[in-house]
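Progress report, Aim 2. The chain analyzed during this reporting quarter is listed below.
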Amino acid sequence: MSRRLAMTPARRLQAGVALAALALPLAACSGEDQVQAFCDDGESAIAEIDAAGSLGDDPEAFAEAVADAREGFEGVEAPDEIADDWAVFTRTFGDLDDALQDIDPSDQEAFTAALTEFAETANSDDLSTAGDNLSTYISENCDA
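Predicted structure tokens for the chain:
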């Protein structure tokens, strides 16, 4: 079996993770302290998603990047207006990290099965809606 991932549901999930990073561009922000902190800390969390998405051919590095993304999302306090949307991303990466922690990522079959199972249970509609809401908030409150 090839170590490279084919365009399976797991591979599509990885591509979706990378696209989520592109959909949420963060940069230095202006405004209230909470917004500033959210933009600064959120930029790092989003960067972890991008890192995970770019590691599709290295399951062990991907699992590590997902764990880092989870930690990043959990460490950010989102403003009240988008706290629920941020929580969707936090839960999603927590669930993905949990799925990958339960397996040996060097076992390609187990890795693919874990990603496939996660992709089947993840709510892409909630993630899409949260991404749209976060993108709108960021474009209105953070400097691009």
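The chain has one domain: 9-141. Residues 9-141 form one domain. These observations will guide the mutagenesis work planned for the next reporting period.
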